[in-house]
Specification:
single chain, six-stranded parallel sheet, six-stranded mixed sheet, 12 strands, binds alpha-D-tagatopyranose, SBP_2_dom, Substrate-binding domain-containing protein, Peripla_BP_I
Length: 321
């Protein structure tokens, strides 16, 4: 009986220390990490979750993955609030707006939950012990170079993006515009239009642009849904190869468009790597070990010529693990 009581007491002690922010995990309890995606079910974030899950398994970490049904801070905020109420040791998140997500993340920080920003960031530099993302400025510049090559260095080029206030795509637009200004005098940048991350809206914008500028030479779509929608419109308008396109991301629909000649180049990020590194940094933060404030991850230019190579196949996004 005494032994049983002692065992019970010991177990109670551990449990009461384990849960809630700030636990070093030293109490032998498994570290609990939550991942809040920018958009549930979308191949970029699902591939990210696969990388995070594999790393969590390797490190013996409990990982809970959730995401909003739209890339929208009003839908992401209640998810963050319920995650914070569950008091995980760490939170990995892709904030859906640079301003609107500051308040809910400040709450999490005040509860001493270790915050790691994956993919996107917020404007408040004190939020996020580590920020892990593609170098999107560089990615935007690479898109400008690839598109300039495709259109022979001359003509009108358009950008289709999601929404202003999304750190990643905003940086891609800036990288693209700066590169054109600096090195592609023959290109005329006709500006950016926003699809609100909706495939149908991206198609509508592409059709309107084709109607307005019959001499449009190229388009840069800054993310998966914008690219898929713009590509569908080009295909339906019979503009295959006539209006060139470069798209960010490499989801299954985009890879099919690449093989069908709708898009000429894709810029594939490494979402699985971002997810895995996010879990590593979260564990380091919870254990009070050194955390790397900024981790840029690589990107690969995918074309019809290299898409079937094994090393390129590895970077294509998946809908599930
Ligand atoms: O391009 C990715 C991501 O990097 C961006 O922040 C939001 O859009 C995607 O998820 C693709 O849809």
């Amino acid at each position: 009986m005494r032994k049983a009581m002692a065992a019970l007491a010991a177990m109670l002690l551990i449990t009461s220390c384990g849960s809630g922010g700030g636990d070093t995990g030293g109490g032998g309890d498994r570290i609990r990490v939550a991942l809040v995606q920018g958009l549930a079910g979308e191949e970029f974030y699902e591939t990210m979750a696969c990388g995070a899950r594999a790393k969590a398994k390797e490190l013996g970490v409990d990982l809970d993955v959730q995401g909003p049904q739209k890339f929208d801070p009003t839908l992401q905020t209640p998810i963050v609030n319920s995650v914070v109420a569950g008091a995980p040791d760490a939170l990995l998140i892709a904030p859906t707006d640079v301003k609107a997500m500051i308040a809910p993340l400040t709450q999490a920080k005040q509860q001493n939950i270790k915050i790691i920003l994956v993919d996107t960031v917020v404007e408040d530099p004190t939020i996020g012990l580590s920020r892990i993302s593609t170098d999107n400025l560089k990615g935007g510049a690479a898109a400008a170079e690839a598109l300039s090559e495709q259109v022979g260095g001359k003509g009108k080029v358009l950008v289709i993006s999601t929404d202003p206030g999304v750190s990643t795509v905003d940086a891609r637009i800036k990288g693209f515009a700066d590169e054109i200004k600096a090195s592609h005098p023959g290109l005329t940048y006709v500006g950016v239009q926003y699809s609100h991350n909706d495939v149908g809206e991206a198609s509508r914008i592409m059709n309107a642009a084709l109607a307005k500028d019959a001499d449009l030479a190229g388009v840069f779509a800054t993310n998966l849904n914008s690219a898929t929608g713009a590509g569908t419109a080009l295909q339906q308008a019979g503009k295959l190869g006539k209006v060139k396109m470069v798209g960010f991301d490499a989801g299954p629909a985009q890879v099919k468009q690449l093989k069908d000649g709708v898009v000429q180049a894709l810029i594939a990020q490494l979402p699985a790597d971002i997810g895995a590194k996010g879990v590593e940094q979260a564990v380091a933060a919870v254990k009070g070990q050194e955390v790397t404030p900024s981790i840029p991850t690589d990107a690969t230019i995918v074309t019809a010529a290299n898409v079937d190579r094994p090393e390129v196949q590895k970077v294509l996004y998946k809908a599930g693990c």
